[in-house]
């Protein structure tokens, strides 16, 4: 039984050997047996509290409540609290009670998770809480916690595609790497070139995507310099839609029309040996056309002939006169 009861008005009396007390309600006096125990009332304990807070930022998508975990460590490196962020990004640790003056050091850090789509913040923030006595009361102040901000970024797992087309050649057999094709982006820039294989398949290099969005392309054939080939001038449009499906990008490809290029080969006619022989024979049988001299050329020729004739006539005349003289 506790003999000290101020509410009941119980008084105590220390005689050294026994402790007597009087109950005012029934006016009786009691004594204790054995050595009396004195009750000691200690002074009231002074205390104060401080609550460390931080902020969470996530880029790339909306932040979810309870998505990330944060730890509060004491000066010895031991984890004393673990909390999660709320939907607005607030990180609030439980209040810490202090009963003595002094400086208390802490570390706030984010616990790295296993989500491969998240780039976690590896920063460690130091916080010091100082406890001082002012006007008989303990007062807490802190440094280092005003700028605690953890920044994470979300990056979904990427995806990639291969755009394809086909090639047909009419007039002769298609050969590997015979024709060239271009992949053009929405800005009309050539981003890839590819060649057909022997079966007519055209396969461009992979297109990698790291962000959601819409992407437009055009496939066309690059005209060559073969005069025997009629090149296909068609171009085909392709639309790619990239979406985020549970942390992984998915690309959906739609073709305005199935890309199929058709070229035509026309062989030049070559003359055979028999054709050449027949041509020579025909030319031999043809009557040769007499080439008449031009007017000027004819007059010149006639004058020469007449001159020669006159010379011959004169020569013959002289010869005959000489013969007659000899006979006489």
Automatic annotation (TrEMBL):
Naturally occurring in which organism (per UniProt): Lactococcus formosensis
* Keywords assigned: Membrane, Transmembrane, Transmembrane helix
Which InterPro entries would you find in this protein's record?
Strep_pil_isopept_link, Strep_pil_link_sf
Q: Which residues cross the membrane?
A: 302-320
| Name of the protein this chain belongs to | LPXTG cell wall anchor domain-containing protein
Residue ranges constituting the Streptococcal pilin isopeptide linkage domain according to the UniProt record: 52-155, 163-265
Q: Which Pfam families match?
A: FctA (PF12892)
């Amino acid at each position: 039984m506790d003999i000290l009861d101020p509410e009941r008005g119980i008084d105590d009396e220390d005689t050294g050997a026994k402790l007597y007390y009087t109950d005012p309600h029934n006016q009786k006096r009691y004594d204790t047996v054995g050595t009396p125990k004195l009750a000691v009332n200690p002074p009231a304990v002074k205390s104060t509290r401080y609550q460390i807070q931080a902020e969470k930022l996530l880029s790339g998508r909306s932040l979810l409540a309870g998505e990330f975990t944060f730890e509060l460590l004491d000066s010895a490196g031991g984890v004393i609290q673990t909390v999660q962020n709320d939907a607005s990004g607030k990180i609030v640790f439980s209040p810490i009670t202090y009963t003595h003056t002094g400086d208390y050091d802490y570390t706030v850090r984010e616990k790295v998770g296993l989500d491969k789509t998240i780039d976690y913040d590896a920063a460690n923030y130091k916080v010091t809480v100082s406890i001082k006595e002012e006007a008989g009361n303990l007062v807490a102040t802190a440094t280092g916690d005003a700028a605690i901000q953890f920044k994470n970024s979300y990056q979904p797992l990427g995806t990639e595609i291969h755009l394809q087309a086909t090639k047909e050649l009419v007039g002769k057999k298609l050969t590997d790497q015979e024709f060239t094709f271009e992949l053009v982006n929405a800005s009309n820039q050539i981003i890839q070139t590819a060649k057909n294989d022997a079966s007519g398949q055209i396969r461009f290099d992979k297109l990698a995507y790291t962000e959601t969005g819409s992407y437009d392309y055009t496939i066309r054939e690059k005209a060559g310099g073969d005069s025997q080939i009629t090149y296909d001038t068609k171009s085909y449009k392709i639309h790619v839609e990239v979406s985020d499906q549970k942390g992984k990008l998915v690309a959906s490809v739609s073709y305005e029309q199935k890309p199929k290029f058709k070229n035509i080969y026309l062989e030049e006619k070559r003359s055979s040996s028999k054709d050449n022989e027949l041509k020579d024979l025909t030319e031999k049988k043809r009557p040769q056309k007499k080439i008449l001299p031009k007017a000027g050329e004819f007059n010149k020729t006639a004058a020469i002939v007449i001159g020669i004739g006159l010379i011959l006539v004169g020569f013959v005349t002289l010869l005959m006169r000489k013969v007659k003289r000899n006979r006489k």
